[in-house]
Amino acid sequence: MSKEDKGIEWWRRTFQYKTGLGLTSELKAQYESDYSTILNKKQCIQCYKDRDWMLSYSPMIRFMTQRIKQISKDDDLKFDEKIICDVCDNTKSGGYHPDFGILLCQNRLRDKWHLEDTLSHELIHWYDQLKWEVDWLNLKHHACSEIRASNLSGECRFWQEFKRRGGFTFKIAKGQQECVKRRAILSVMGNPNCKDKEHAERIVEEVWESCFNDTRPFEQIYK
């Protein structure tokens, strides 16, 4: 089969899949497998492309990576080896692990600006780990870093929250604080040492004032 014929066949199967006309269960399963592979590859390429752009040009990302290098004991730290893209099976857009680095969920990122906020969030966790040796099973430690990451990363800026919460459901007054608190509670709820939502809310409240007002390594933040 020629390259052109293969292209026509792919489009034929795509049309069948979208409409359901003349598509057997076996062909549908094959198409879903092929489409998933192609989509994952495209997402992966775009994720790494956006990651590299941010590492080179984003003021926020460059600032955080510089601060991390300053306090890291790893003299040969390479961020392109510690920040990887992959498919995630949950609703998070990224994650940080002290032993491995940062995971960017290529299938959960809306665009490169969402990647920037996600990467900023995880870099703040990385900074906190190096600066204070965070015990991630300690709920107060976890809550404090989550508050700082959501507050400092930019993911709770007005426009981001406006889009995320469906327009005018977002309150302008104290919107930043509400967003940060909500996201911190959700994250702490996922900690194995957290009993329930009420437990997470109590822990976040206990550390709220000191952690929300701690803007290190920034002198101040603009909401």
Give an account of the 3D structure.
With 223 residues, the protein is mainly alpha-helical. It folds into two domains: 43-133, no CATH class; 135-223, no CATH class. 63% of the residues lie in helices and 6% in strands. It is built from nine helices and three strands, in the order ααααβββααααα. It has helices at 3-19, 25-57, 59-71, 79-82, 112-132, 139-153, 158-164, 175-189, 197-212; strands at 83-86, 94-97, 101-105. It has a three-stranded mixed beta sheet with strand order 1-3-2. β2 (94-97) and β3 form a beta hairpin. α5 packs across α6 and α6 (139-153) crosses α9. The radius of gyration is 21 Å and the shape is globular. The mean pLDDT is 85.
Overview in brief:
It contains 9 helices and 3 strands; from the N terminus they run ααααβββααααα. With 223 residues, the chain is mainly alpha-helical. Helix 2 (25-57) crosses helix 3, helix 5 packs across helix 6 (139-153) and helix 6 packs antiparallel against helix 8 (175-189).
Integer count of domains: 2
Name the beta content range.
Answer: 5-15%
What structural class do helix, strand and pairing data support?
A: mainly alpha
Give the termini distance in whole angstroms: 58 Å
Strand line-up of the largest beta sheet: 1-3-2
**Secondary-structure element series:** HHHHEEEHHHHH
pLDDT averaged residue by residue: 85
Number of helices: 9
Radius of gyration: 21 Å
Enzyme class: hydrolase
Keywords: Hydrolase, Membrane, Metal-binding, Metalloprotease, Mitochondrion, Mitochondrion inner membrane, Protease
Protein name: Mitochondrial inner membrane protease ATP23
Subcellular location: Mitochondrion inner membrane
